[in-house]
Amino acid sequence: MTNVIRRILRIACLFAVMGPAATTAAEEWMNQPPMSADQLEQASGRQGVPVQLQLNDNQQSAVVTGNTLSGPSMTGNNMISDQAFGNMSGIATVIQNTGNQVVIQDSTQVNILINR
């Protein structure tokens, strides 16, 4: 199981370093047999990975000040359709605002743990 995960991570690192030149390696990876249900079950939930402590710190400092809103204010509709994420892949962040004069700050931290 760990060999399969290592292969996947190696390909991801290869893409990050080599970009388009890594296409051949990715095609080779795509020819690997699919993982069985048992293999997938063993890999879920970080099974077999020792507990590790990680601290992520994110500092944001936006300020809204001195704004004036007078008279009628229209904010519009705030909806996400049922098919909004139909073709999404990867990590998505959705932020919605239903008010006026608002600062929205967002951060996403992705942690990848590689053990050997």
Describe the structure in brief.
This protein has helices at 2-18, 23-30, 37-43.
Describe the structure.
This protein is mostly helical and 116 residues long. It has a domain at 2-46. Helix content is 28%, strand content 0%. The protein contains 3 helices and no strands. The protein has helices at residues 2-18, 23-30, 37-43. The protein is elongated, with a radius of gyration of 22 Å. The chain starts with a helix and ends in a 73-residue tail after the last helix. 0% of the residues are buried.
The low-pLDDT segments are none
Q: What overall form do the CA principal axes indicate?
A: elongated
- Category from helices, strands and their pairing: mainly alpha
Please give the largest β-sheet. none
Count of DSSP E strands? Answer: 0
Keywords:
single chain; 116 residues; mainly alpha; 3 helices; elongated
List the helices and strands and how they pair.
Layout: H1 2-18, H2 23-30, H3 37-43
